[in-house]
Amino acid sequence: MRNLVIDYGNSAAKVGIFDSGTRTSQHVFAAIELLKEFLQKTHADNVIISSVTTDAKAVAAWIVHADKKFILDHNLPLPVKNHYATPQTLGVDRLASVCGGAMLFPGEDCLVIDAGTCVTYDFIDRQKNYYGGSISPGLAMRFQALNTFTAKLPLVQPSDTVPLSANNTEQCIQSGVVNGMVAELDGIINQYQNQWPAMKIILCGGDTVFFENKLKASIFASPDLVLTGLNSILQHNVDIQ
């Protein structure tokens, strides 16, 4: 059985192909026309589309060689129990990531941290109960905000090695943003660990590589966790039909 999963995010579209539960290929498309061309010629048994930026129904219309198509929204059945108070406002990427966490570590408490455009923290317990989490600005957004909302601070790029106390403006910004974000990540993780000491910590998203060796806690890095979660949701819906 071949599954096609599409994660249409803020900056690009990621596509994963799963054969009998194993991901066999992955593709990233920054241009919508390239994605459309790829989907029009790709064959799959089942498809799921998750989109936070564009009309998922329009993307589904590009897929002509598939038996079953699903669009991820708050009405689609999930392999986890969603207790979010306003499910219609919950980002579908967050839903997919917690489903991915439950898939990777069944029977375990999991904290999923998605370090992308935003940083999202989402906790799912060992009984697959999901209640929510928190959202804060991502790495690039923090640098952009300092430049946008001040008169003179420049837009700088993150650096892997920044001092705690810098002596020029560029490094001061790098130190504040990078060290501040690491402190936030460590602090949030520590608060969860105080309640669930044995939980698994999963880091995913575009900035996974940047942060995976900077955190104090032991983490499992899975940059493409959303694709894994989407496939678990897709398979769940195929199985219950």
List keywords for this structure.
241 residues; six-stranded mixed beta sheet; five-stranded mixed beta sheet; 36% helix
Give an account of the 3D structure.
By secondary structure, the protein is an alpha/beta fold. The protein has seven helices and eleven strands. The strands form two sheets. It has a six-stranded mixed sheet with strand order 6-9-8-7-10-11, with helices on both faces. Strands 3-2-1-4-5 form a five-stranded mixed sheet, sandwiched between helices. β7 (110-115) and β8 (118-124) form a beta hairpin. The radius of gyration is 19 Å and the shape is globular.
SSE diagram, text form:
Blueprint: E1 2-8, E2 13-19, E3 22-29, H1 32-41, E4 43-51, H2 56-61, E5 65-71, E6 81-82, H3 92-104, E7 110-115, E8 118-124, E9 129-137, H4 139-148, H5 169-195, E10 200-204, H6 208-211, E11 220-221, H7 225-240
Helix pairs in contact: 3-7, 4-5
